[in-house]
């Protein structure tokens, strides 16, 4: 009987448990055992695994987070860690690995696949920035959470005649800001793909005020930056195992600039990890389930080095290597659509 190892890496995300459940249940259908690898790639380095049964995944479908735990471990940083990982794959008799994660987790999976280790991928990120798939699970939930927050902030902004700045996640891609901004009726959307001109932003917001609309909502992705060569704003110079700095602070930067330039009371709401927590939407539960089933089918077909992906309404297989080669950034046609409402 073959054994599948399944892990979740990177930031937690609504829908992870739905994938785990689907992998275990589909594995049972085809006669496979499943080992849960704890805390992402760290679990394979440290040999921290546990059997997953039908009972293990009972009731986890609607739960947020991941029952396996997660980490931002990069086993390629140390040769000794990589050797321990390979030794533990043999020790626990793992015939194939399902790696559920974003660009970093799948980047490791791609490298391991290139070394001949049987790996398949499942794309996970609330940022929706993994190439090769129309959508990643977790994104729909994040957009729903941010849209609800914008709806709630509208009433406060209008009551107090304020500008409300909403800072959302999005390191390199502004999908959450764009989609939730459109859905929530934001008056300005600032994303990493398009450096923003503060003069233009102020011009739009001033036009609203002069037309009698005494409040505004500005949605900004954490990775957005002002034009003129200034970099992104970070909370710390420290980086994680994949070299990423912790972003955050662009909302406060905007608050100070807008108050000074417009003379309007401005407040900031940083949604932070609220965006990735809680129960997944129905859409994300279904998409995550379909991804999990596809991952096991790829293993059954010995079609390794591939990632389950959404293409239109179909779940297809795409090479992991291609999926992590470039980030999927915001469709500029969609962003241009949102600009119709700026200053209105």
UniProtKB/TrEMBL annotation:
PROSITE patterns: PHOSPHOFRUCTOKINASE. Its cofactor is Mg(2+). Mg(2+) binds at residue 103. Pfam families: PFK (PF00365). It comes from the Archaea. Residues 4-299 form the Phosphofructokinase domain. The record marks 104 as: Important for catalytic activity and substrate specificity. Belongs to the phosphofructokinase type A (PFKA) family. Mixed-substrate PFK group III subfamily. Catalyzes the phosphorylation of D-fructose 6-phosphate, the first committing step of glycolysis. Uses inorganic phosphate (PPi) as phosphoryl donor instead of ATP like common ATP-dependent phosphofructokinases (ATP-PFKs), which renders the reaction reversible, and can thus function both in glycolysis and gluconeogenesis. Consistently, PPi-PFK can replace the enzymes of both the forward (ATP-PFK) and reverse (fructose-bisphosphatase (FBPase)) reactions. This is Pyrophosphate--fructose 6-phosphate 1-phosphotransferase. The lineage of its organism: Archaea, Methanobacteriati, Methanobacteriota, Stenosarchaea group, Methanomicrobia. The gene is pfp.
């Amino acid at each position: 009987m073959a054994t599948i190892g399944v892990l979740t890496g990177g930031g937690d995300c609504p829908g992870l448990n739905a994938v785990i459940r689907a992998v275990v249940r589909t594995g049972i259908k085809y006669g496979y055992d499943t080992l849960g690898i704890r805390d992402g790639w760290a679990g394979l380095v440290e040999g921290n695994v546990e059997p997953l049964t039908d009972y293990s995944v009972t009731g986890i479908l609607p739960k947020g987070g991941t029952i396996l735990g997660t980490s931002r471990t990069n086993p390629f940083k140390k040769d000794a860690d990589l050797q321990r990982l390979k030794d533990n794959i043999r020790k626990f008799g793992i015939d194939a690995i399902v790696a559920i994660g974003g660009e970093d987790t799948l980047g490791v999976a791609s490298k391991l696949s290139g070394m001949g280790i049987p790996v398949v991928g499942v794309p996970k990120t609330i940022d929706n920035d993994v190439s090769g798939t129309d959508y990643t699970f977790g994104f729909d939930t994040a957009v729903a959470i941010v849209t609800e927050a914008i709806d709630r902030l509208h009433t406060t902004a209008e009551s107090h005649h304020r500008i409300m700045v909403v800072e959302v996640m999005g390191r390199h891609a502004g999908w959450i800001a764009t989609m939730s901004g459109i859905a929530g009726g934001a008056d300005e959307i600032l994303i990493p793909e398009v450096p923003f001109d503060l003069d233009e932003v102020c011009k739009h917001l001033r036009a609203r005020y002069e037309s009698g609309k005494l409040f505004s909502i500005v949605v900004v992705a954490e990775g957005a930056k002002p034009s003129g060569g200034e970099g992104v704003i970070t909370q710390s110079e420290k980086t994680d195992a994949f070299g990423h700095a912790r972003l955050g602070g662009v909302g406060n930067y905007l608050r100070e600039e807008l108050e000074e330039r417009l003379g309007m009371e401005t407040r900031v709401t940083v949604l932070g990890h609220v965006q990735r927590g809680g129960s997944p939407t129905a859409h994300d539960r279904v998409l995550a389930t379909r991804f999990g089933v596809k991952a096991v089918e790829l293993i059954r077909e010995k079609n390794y080095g591939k990632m389950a992906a959404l293409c239109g309404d179909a779940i297809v297989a795409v090479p992991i290597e291609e999926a992590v080669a470039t980030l999927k950034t915001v469709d500029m046609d969609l962003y241009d659509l949102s600009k119709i409402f700026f200053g209105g």
